[in-house]
Amino acid sequence: MSSADGFSWDAVRANWLDGLPGGRLNIAHEALDRHVQAGAGDREALVWWRQDGQREALSYAALLDASARFAGALQARGVGLGERVCTLAPRRPEPFIAGLGALRQGAVFAPLFPVYGPQPVRQRLTVSEARVLVTTEPLYRQVIRPIRSQLPALQDIILLDGEASGAESWARCLARAEPVPPVPTSPEFPALLHFTSGTLGPPKCVLHAHRAAAAHVASGRQVLELAPGGRHWCTADLGWVTGVSYAMLVPLLCGATTLIDEPAFEARRWYRLLAQEGIQTWVTSPTALRLLRRAGAEAAEGADLGRLRRIFSTGEPLDAALANWSRGAFGTPARNGWWQSETGAIMIAQYGDDPVAAGRMGRPVPGIEMALMQQEAGGLKPVAKGEVGEIALRGGWPSQFLAYLGETERYREAFVDGWYRSGDMARRLPDGELQFLGRSDDVIKTRGYMVGPAEVEAVLNRHPAVAESAVAGMPHRLAHTIVAAWVVPSRSPEDPDRLRKELLAYARRALGPAVTPRRITLVQELPRTAGGKVRRRALVGADRDDGGTAAPDEEGGG
What we know:
By secondary structure, the protein is an alpha/beta fold. It has 2 domains: about 425 residues, ANL, N-terminal domain (Rossmann fold); about 110 residues, ANL, C-terminal domain (GMP Synthetase, Chain A, domain 3). Strand 3, helix 4 and strand 4 form a beta-alpha-beta unit. GO terms for molecular function: ATP binding; CoA-ligase activity; fatty acid ligase activity; fatty-acyl-CoA synthase activity. It holds the Pfam family AMP-binding_C.
């Protein structure tokens, strides 16, 4: 399945990137130098809303100068090509400066999520062999100091605030440094290292190259429709691939202004920022949209959202009820965007002038060849129309990952016959759009049917008493596996047992007896990874017989 006739990655590079002499390419040059050299140095690059409520802005010229100085500081410390520079910091401009400076110097940028404790951080710094760490004094004291002796590769620690023995001040580091030009790296040279959440084991370390810039700028221009001078906000933390790609690289490569909001979520402030900053393109998560929905219409009072043109939801499936709510709340529907750390950018989306059908994934974006496959003895084979298959991508797109760091065999196994196997399952609908079902190991096989958690969750989430839900397969002594659901009520029910029975009947009417949940448990919240993904296996493991209501025919089949 091809996304667009006549599309060419060569044309993307020729039209939207400058490159460097000799066929070289450096992401930092494309994100900053190119715009400044074209006369856009005074344009706002970063807008930062600080923890204290104050607003600060950095122009493209100022961001270029600061990142070039940080690159100079790395050079003065002997940081060589391909060495890892990590950040462990809240949402503020300095991690952006450090990341762009690292890329400029030919180092690999590897941001960490700032809520991790000492052991997850130690694991990531050790596996990545981090040479430099940029962090804050509180995080250094609470997270790094207890494990400092276990990090022999870590030579330089730079603190954004405060003082500590064995660390250097960020301000002094930049003040003493001279700005340096970008290193003319090969497009294939390593640039970015993303750590997955590691829900089923140790985190994967996903390595990307400078050539990813082509996919990032194409994603911004063609999928988000983000133009130079546009106003953009991605709410993801820089510690995740979504933050690196859609808060930092995509908007800067497109010459847009990107918003950084440091404080924790607060619905009224989010609406105010969308309005006050004139946000045109917004990338956020279904979890964030649910929190806004829960806050009610009064949270949006006085917020003029007339400039908001595109909302993209990533990180987890966007159910139909939430998509429909967003259309009324914002005047434009939230659109699904599917991708992974390994793909580097959105691969499947609802984009362009296509009607936005709630509860669907969309179609492959330009330049991406996708098929739904199943593994057979002779290799991968496409599934028949309407059947469930694994999302597979034809290798060769620019943001295709280079490696799983230190796991050569795991990387090799991710590709079969030139196709990348995503591990995510979907179904092609009659009109050609795709419906996401879940991870291959989350899809439930029950009584001869394959049931995708996402399609059951989408039905449950339409019920007015449901805030959100999660579905998983639960072992059963007769049926082997049954469909089970965990539901967060939108408000505390007066009669929990009555609500569970009502939801069982509601789901059965909508889904039919074959795929409806056989058990529903009411919970106060869903367990999630640090990245916000639901931990379905934790739900199954924690469930107790007295915690749920079973369908009347659960024991007897039928």
